Here is the input.
Amino acid sequence: MLPEEKNAAVDFIRQKINEDLEKNTYGGRIHTRFPPEPNGYLHIGHAKSICLNFGIADDYESGSCNLRFDDTNPAREETEYVESIIEDVKWLGFDWEDKLFYASDYFDRLYNYAVQLIKMGKAYVCSLTGDQIREYRGTLKEPGKNSPYRNRTIEENLELFEKMKSGEFKTAEHVLRAKIDMAHPYMVMRDPVIYRILHQDHHRTGQKWCIYPLYDFTHCLSDAIEGITHSLCTLEFENNRAIYDWVLDTLQTENRPQQIEFARLNLNYTIVSKRKLLTLVNEGIVSGWNDPRMLTISGMRRRGYTPESIRNFCDRIGIAKSNSVVDIALLEFCVREHLNKIADRIMVVLDPVKVIIDNYPDDQVEEFDADNNPEYPEAGKRKVPFSKTIFIEREDFREEPPGKFFRLAPGREVRLKHAYYIKCESFLKDENTGEIKEIHCSYDPASRGGWSDDGRKVKGTLHWVSEKHAHNVEVRVYDRLFIKEDPEDGVDFRDNLNPESLKVLNNCMAEPGIAGSEPGKRFQFLRKGYFCVDPDSSSDKLVFNQTVTLRDTWAKIEKSSNKQNK
Ligand code: ATP
Ligand code: MG
Here is the structure.
């Protein structure tokens, strides 16, 4: 089925593919690839590219998508990254079947292609230094100058290139360049370097090679070797399309893929650059690539995001031809929307204060039935124990309640979710700190289950946890890692870090239903948001990550009234 039939809004790439199918450009084949360089962990930007490439393969009957590691730079690449990328693509829900490739597998063939270019008089060994090459390249306004080595004979070039390969030269002593045009309007076409000498072990080929092909030479040829039809990349490669085409046209490869560029994903409050994310990791600003504040795929996984919500987000933002910045609130919305469907509800008090219900029998315990997910009865029910002493959130009590504050206050009645109405009779303060120490209430036995027949209005509903049944848990509450929408707005992104991006709450009280939850298990903490069990949990203490908040209506009211008062 063509995506046209599935989805009214077909993006410009799928339109192009539909045209190619109609014209039979590739004999009915549609073959894409996702080509990460294993020099870091994947981030939300990569998710967009993964969803596009694998999504197209899924949309078309003849569609197919390769996972290819673009591993031509041994100085920055590691096996750890390869493994994390494999795990992340799988977790997102995509399957490359048996089509896992490495550009390094093509080193022999790429070498032969380079030799072919030399023999055609289309490549030469250049012995200028890196600085000289830059100097000779000219500027956007001025043409470059030919290298003095540009007219080496084919024989000399073949001999030198062979010696480069066999290790007779030092790192960077010579390079191989394509012989194109030093006055070309695109800088990338001014005799680009296609091979360089680098005496460094490679994570897959070990010491076999000391020359490595560069991106512009490797990528198009890897696409051709794999029979790729549509090679999708981000807009910054637009000019590189000229060299992509030059290499394939000059070498007359059997397959002739085409490069199409699309807009990269930028999100506000977020950095999507592996190099900068690596800085955050290396400088210990975050706990690692999977720190839940990082919008890496592994960070989002640990934080409790679901693959479905990330895929849905990528669908919603669509594919465009010009760059823009997406609001991170959309990603959070997608996460919330999915978790609402799948997360079990549970009550956890993050900042507990004790409530003693004076007229409740001392040793009595009752169990209330509660839906795991009120919107989906099939999610089942759980029992919530209730007793004389419970915890509620400190912020749910005010000695002097402001207007529109409908929670507990002296003389006020509120509903305890699933349990009873309680009314505040008195409270005790710590003499030194002035902090509320305990609140004394009475309950109405006729309101069992949290409802009363006499029709009296109780506006506030609080979550709570029975003291003697409570499990002490740790909760890590996150805020954005950066305080500015554009973390790089004229400054180093490290100057815009949010000092309050992580708060560790050590003394949270959870209802017993939480016991035994495995890392990765997701919950909605009633009134508090979505949370997910962190791998740091032990058998003594569960640790939770806040995935995303619920929209907190009170915080909004308070914020806007603060604004008005200013
Ligand atoms: P980074 O800038 O984070 O290092 P990159 O482009 O160098 O990213 P690659 O590993 O080369 O990372 O990227 C693999 C694929 O993912 C490429 O096709 C690239 O175009 C795509 N990609 C990377 N970042 C984004 C993004 N922000 N939005 C969409 N696609 C992206
Ligand atoms: Mg790259």
Summary: The longest strand covers residues 421-429. The CA atoms of residues 276 and 444 lie 58 Å apart. The chain has three domains: 3-266, 267-342, 352-470. Confidence is low (pLDDT under 50) at residues 1-6.
